[in-house]
From TrEMBL:
This is Putative 3-methyladenine DNA glycosylase. CDD domains: AAG. It comes from Pusillimonas noertemannii. InterPro entries: Formyl_transferase-like_C_sf, MPG, MPG_sf. The keyword Glycosyltransferase does not apply. GO terms for biological process: base-excision repair. Gene3D superfamilies: Methylpurine-DNA glycosylase (MPG) (3.10.300.10). The keyword DNA damage applies.
Amino acid sequence: MQLAVGPLMQKLNRDFYNRDTETVARALLGKILVHHVQGVPRMARIVEVEAYLGPTDLAAHSSKGLTRRTRAMFGPPGHAYVYLIYGMHHCMNVVTEPEGSGTGVLLRAVEPLANVEGSTRGPGLLTRAMGIDLSHYGHDLCSDELHLLEPEDAQAPRIVATPRVGVGYAKEWADKPLRFYIAGNPHISRK
């Protein structure tokens, strides 16, 4: 399916990201992720995310403090924190809250809209299909190459909150309902 970018689709600005992480996580649902690859815009609707609440959140990378790996997560809001897991899968977080917070929102699944091939049901599959890798570490999401849009047909989705996936090691943080997805969307990573 092709999606035309109309005049009413606005790029999200820095203020959108510079808010409470859980608020941003919920607000990202339904937004359009756009990545221009060799002049072709790959576009997908965000349908599933997870919030990571900073150094006190034992599931967050920032709980280990400021490191070379987490530098972008402690940076200004509205930037990408991209990292490699299992030596083969890239994952992308949207950095939130004021600089130094170490907070972010993991993009877990998207619904393909234009020029996206392959499965997008999971953070590693999403980045592969969207062409996002470590070269986007710290990338400004208010740029033209990689950004998020408010869709013309923006409607408040019905949101489901559950515990995050794969964070059983995070003690009391493992069961907190910080995974959010659009109810009934067939593109979420797991039910």
